[in-house]
Design a protein that fits this description.
- By secondary structure, the protein is of the alpha/beta class.
- The protein is built from 16 helices and 16 strands.
- The chain folds into 3 domains: 277 residues, Alpha-Beta Barrel (TIM Barrel), CATH 3.20.20; 52 residues; 113 residues, 2-Layer Sandwich (Double Stranded RNA Binding Domain).
- The strands form 4 sheets. It has an 8-stranded parallel beta barrel with strand order 1-2-3-4-5-6-7-8, surrounded by 8 helices. Strands 11-12-13 form a 3-stranded antiparallel beta sheet. Strands 14-15-16 form a 3-stranded antiparallel beta sheet.
- Strand 2, helix 2 and strand 3 form a beta-alpha-beta unit.
- The radius of gyration is 24 Å and the shape is globular.
- The two termini are 40 Å apart.
- It binds 3-methyl-2-oxobutanoic acid (KIV) and zinc ion.
- 3-methyl-2-oxobutanoic acid binds next to strand 5.
- The site of zinc ion (ZN) has 6 residues, from loops.
Length: 516
C-alpha cells in the first residue's frame, strides 16, 4: 500500500473521550484500553493531556512505556510548559507524537485567547518548533477550524509546516460543519497551501449535529489521510466521530474510497465493550456496528432473506467486527494458569501476584455460581477486581436485602470507610432503592443519582449483571460500575465505586478552557 493509500486511524478515546463528563479513567484503566487499541492496530493513540494533573502525566507516561506497535501521542496547548510536560511524558515511548493546538476562529481568538491573529501565528510556530525539540512527529491543530477564516487557516498552516509540523489536524471543535462544506475546506487547504505536500491532513469532528462520521468521511474523500475518532463515539458533549463507523464504512465501501486502514476489525467489539465497561457509558442497542441489535433481524421477511442468502439484508458479517457466539472459555475446574493465559489473550495482565490471586479467587466464586464462564464474564470480573485493588476509601463488607410481596424492601449493609466498619439500614421502593438509601444512611454523600442501568453480560438467568451508576455533586460527575450474578449486590458495588470517585479530590485542567 502506498503512503497515500493508507488512512491513519488516530484514536482519542483516552483524551477527548475522557473529556465526556464522568468518563475519567485511572492510569491502569488507560493502560488496559491502550493495549486493546494496540491490538486493534490503531496507528496513533492519543493518551491524554499531561499538563492537566500529575495523574494525567503518569497515565500518559505509563501508556508510552507499555505500547510498542502504535504511536503514542500527548496533547499540549501552544505553551512551553505544556509542550515540555508532554515531551517528558513521552520520553520512553517507542514512537511518540506531540499534538499542539491553538484556536484560530475569530470568536475564540478575540473572546477566549484575547490575541491578535499575528500573535496566534507566532505562538503556533513557536510551539511547533519547541515540540520538534522532543520528537520529529509533531501534529498541529487550529482549534475551531470549522468556524475559522479559510485565508487565515492557509496562512497559519503554511507557517507551521515550515516550522516542522508533519500532521495538520482540522478540528470541527463545536460540531458545526456540514459534509460537503467540510470536504470542500479540506480540498481548498490542500490546493492553496504551497507546502501542503509536506504534511498529512487530518480531521477531528465532533458530533453535535450528528454529522461527525459523515464529515470525517467526506474529508477523506477530499484527501484527508488521518481521522481522529473514538471507540463508541465517546467524547466531549455529543462525542467524536466513532472509530468503528469510520473504519467499517471505508472497508465496506471500498468502491468509494481510495485508501484503507490497517485496523483489525475483529477487535472492534471486544474493544468497544472494554471501553463501555471501564467508562460506564452503556452502548445503545441500535448503535451501528457495536450495538446489541446491529446484526439482529426482527422482521420475518428480513430473517427469511438472511437465511436464504446473507447479503440480501447484511452488508458486513457480524464476525468481521468481532461478534461471536458466547464461547465457554473456562469453567469451575480451570486453574490459575489457564485463567491468567486467557486474560492475557484478552489484553489483561496483572502487576502483581496479589492482583492475580484476587481476580482468580473472584473467578472461582463466580464459577461456583455460574457454570460456564465466557470472555465477557472475565472482562467484567477483572474490571470489578481492579476496582477493589485500588485504594478506595469506601468498601463493601457485606449486605442483606429482604424483598417480599406486600412488604417494604429492607436493606442492611456493612461498609468499611477509611478502615472503620460501619452499618446502615434503610427501606425503599425496591431492593436497589433500599440498598442505596442504606449506603447513604452511613456516608451521606450529598450526591444526586443521575443514571442507573443494568446490563446482562451474557445470556441466561445466571448471567453476570453489570450495573452502571452515575452520581453528580456540585457539577462533578462520577460513573461507577459493579458486576455480580446478584444484581442488587452489583448495584451496591456500582454505587460504592461511584462514591469513591466522588470522594477523590481532583484538580485537573481542561485543555480547551483557560487562557490559551
Ligand atoms: O475538538 C478539538 O478542537 C480538540 C482539539 C484539542 C484538537 O479536541
Ligand atoms: Zn475534540
Amino acid at each position: 500500500m502506498s503512503d497515500n493509500q493508507r488512512l491513519i486511524i488516530f484514536d482519542t478515546t483516552l483524551r477527548d473521550g475522557e473529556q465526556s463528563p464522568g468518563a475519567s479513567m485511572t492510569k491502569d484503566e488507560k493502560v488496559r484500553i491502550a493495549r486493546a487499541l494496540e491490538k486493534l492496530r490503531v496507528d496513533v493513540i492519543e493518551a491524554g493531556f499531561p499538563i492537566a494533573s500529575p495523574g494525567d502525566f503518569e497515565a500518559v507516561k505509563a501508556v508510552a512505556e507499555t505500547i510498542k506497535d502504535s504511536t503514542v501521542c500527548a496533547l499540549a496547548r501552544a505553551l512551553d510548559k505544556d509542550i515540555d510536560r508532554a515531551g517528558e511524558a513521552l520520553r520512553n515511548a517507542t514512537s511518540g507524537r506531540i499534538h499542539t493546538f491553538i484556536a484560530t476562529s475569530p470568536i475564540h481568538m478575540e473572546k477566549k485567547l484575547r490575541m491578535t491573529p499575528d500573535q496566534v501565528v507566532e505562538q503556533a510556530v513557536h510551539a511547533v518548533k519547541r515540540a520538534r525539540q522532543y520528537t520529529d512527529d509533531v501534529e498541529f491543530s487550529p482549534e475551531d477550524a470549522g468556524r475559522s477564516d479559510i485565508d487565515f487557516l492557509c496562512r497559519i498552516l503554511e507557517a507551521v509546516i515550515d516550522a516542522g509540523a508533519r500532521t495538520l489536524n482540522i478540528p470541527d471543535t463545536v460540531g458545526y460543519a456540514i459534509p460537503h462544506q467540510f470536504g470542500q475546506t479540506i480540498a481548498t487547504l490542500r490546493e492553496r497551501i504551497p507546502n501542503a505536500d509536506k504534511a498529512i491532513f487530518s480531521v477531528h469532528c465532533h458530533n453535535d449535529l450528528g454529522l461527525a462520521v459523515a464529515n470525517s468521511l467526506t474529508a477523506v474523500r477530499n484527501g484527508a489521510r488521518q481521522v481522529e475518532c473514538t471507540i463508541n463515539g465517546l467524547g466531549e458533549r455529543a462525542g467524536n466521530a466513532s472509530l468503528e463507523e469510520v473504519v467499517m464504512t471505508v472497508k465496506v465501501r471500498q468502491d468509494l474510497f481510495d485508501c484503507q486502514t490497517g485496523i483489525d476489525s475483529t477487535q472492534i467489539v471486544p474493544c468497544s465493550r472494554l471501553v463501555s465497561s471501564i467508562t460506564g457509558f452503556p452502548i445503545q442497542p441500535n448503535k451501528a456496528i457495536v450495538g446489541a441489535n446491529a446484526f439482529a433481524h426482527e422482521s420475518g421477511i428480513h430473517q427469511d432473506g438472511v437465511l436464504k442468502h446473507r447479503e440480501t439484508y447484511e452488508i458486513m458479517r457480524a464476525q468481521d467486527v468481532g461478534w461471536n457466539e458466547n464461547r465457554m472459555v473456562l469453567g469451575k475446574h480451570s486453574g490459575r494458569n489457564a485463567f491468567r493465559m486467557r486474560l492475557l489473550e484478552l489484553g489483561v495482565s496483572f502487576d502483581s501476584d496479589e492482583e492475580l490471586n484476587a481476580a482468580f479467587s473472584r473467578f472461582k466464586d463466580l464459577a461456583d455460581k455460574k457454570h460456564e464462564i465466557f470472555d465477557e464474564d472475565l472482562q467484567a470480573l477483572v474490571t470489578d477486581a481492579t476496582l477493589d485493588a485500588t485504594n478506595e476509601r469506601l468498601k463493601l463488607s457485606s449486605m442483606r436485602v429482604c424483598s417480599e410481596t406486600g412488604e417494604i424492601p429492607q436493606a442492611q449493609i456493612t461498609l468499611v470507610l477509611d478502615g472503620e466498619e460501619i452499618q446502615g439500614t434503610a427501606s425503599g421502593g425496591g431492593p436497589v432503592d433500599a440498598t442505596f438509601k442504606a449506603i447513604e444512611s452511613v456516608i451521606d454523600t450529598q450526591t444526586t443519582l443521575k443514571l442507573y442501568s443494568v446490563n446482562a453480560i451474557t445470556s441466561g438467568t445466571d448471567a453476570l449483571g453489570e450495573v452502571t451508576v452515575r452520581l453528580e455533586k456540585g457539577g462533578r460527575i462520577a460513573n461507577g460500575q459493579g458486576a455480580d450474578t446478584d444484581i442488587v449486590i452489583a448495584s451496591a458495588k456500582a454505587y460504592i465505586n461511584a462514591v469513591n470517585k466522588i470522594l477523590q479530590p481532583r484538580k485537573r485542567e481542561h485543555p480547551q478552557q483557560g487562557d490559551v
